[in-house]
Write a structure and sequence with these properties.
Layout: H1 3-6, H2 28-34, E1 41-42, H3 54-59, E2 67-71, H4 77-85, E3 90-94, H5 98-110, E4 116-119, E5 138-141, H6 159-168, E6 174-179, H7 182-194, E7 198-203, H8 219-226, E8 232-237
Parallel strand pairs: 1-4, 2-3, 2-5, 3-4, 5-6
Antiparallel strand pairs: 6-8, 7-8
């Protein structure tokens, strides 16, 4: 029996998202999620079934294997880079939109990596997918800044999000955060400093800082740089 048949749908679960199986006219990307890429990409109903057993049941690796998370993969350039650079680790990507979700997993597969999976889920409730201290490092690159003040409440970074993710990460792991929006960065820094995390690396101009040497520029990042937009960066650690 294959892995897909072992993971039942979660009937009655509030997934905070429109279910793929209820789409009236699914796109080719939505079809691919449950079809061509079903072994490496999980819809919003299958993903919660791996809570607490991602390493064993999804990645089929030892329980002590480092397990990283990218929230919002976009078109997957960083995702593919990370999977290729760190073959000794496993990587889960979270993306809500079908096209970038499929582009992301396809890009990593074409690069020859086998240590990654992707899931469709609402990032504002991402902690529902993991047990406490199940995760290692978390990457959040260029999330939607929701610049209108009336929409600020939709921003991913807030006190509840940080409190929940702190519980899900192992000691000495980190969150890496990048954004082109100075307004969103200052907003986030206030929450970072008030959280249980320790903020150890901060720059308002990543590409003119010592951190630039080891930084991987995402697709969006390169676009912003061409427009002379500075990249804001923070890394915060769970020190306990």
């Amino acid at each position: 029996m294959d892995l897909i048949s072992l993971m039942p749908m979660k009937e009655g679960l509030d997934l905070h998202i429109r279910l793929t199986r209820n789409l009236p006219s699914p796109t080719a990307y939505a079809v691919a999620l449950n079809g061509e890429y079903a072994n490496d990409a999980y819809n919003e109903e299958r993903a919660p079934g791996f809570k607490g057993v991602w390493r064993e049941k999804s990645f089929s690796v030892p329980a002590d294997t480092p397990f990283d998370l990218e929230i919002g993969t976009g078109n997957g350039f960083y995702f593919a880079h990370h999977a290729k650079k760190y073959p000794e680790r496993v990587l889960l990507g979270i993306e809500i939109k079908y096209k970038p979700l499929i582009q992301t997993i396809r890009r990593a597969i074409k690069a020859g990596s086998t240590n990654m999976k992707i899931a469709r889920y609402n990032a504002n409730y991402i902690w529902e997918l993991f047990n406490d201290e199940e995760l290692d490092n978390i990457y959040i690159h260029f999330p939607d800044p929701w610049l209108k003040k009336s929409r600020n409440k939709n921003r991913l970074i807030n006190s509840n999000f940080l409190e929940q993710m702190f519980k899900k990460q192992k000691p000495n792991s980190f969150i890496e955060f990048k954004t082109d929006s100075l307004d969103y960065f200052n907003w986030s820094m206030d929450f970072f400093k008030a959280s249980s995390y320790t903020v150890e690396e901060v720059t308002y101009d990543l590409h003119n800082s010592p951190l630039a040497e080891t930084n991987f520029s995402t697709h969006f990042e390169k676009i912003f740089l061409k427009q002379n937009i500075k990249i804001n960066y923070a890394r915060l650690y769970k020190r306990v």
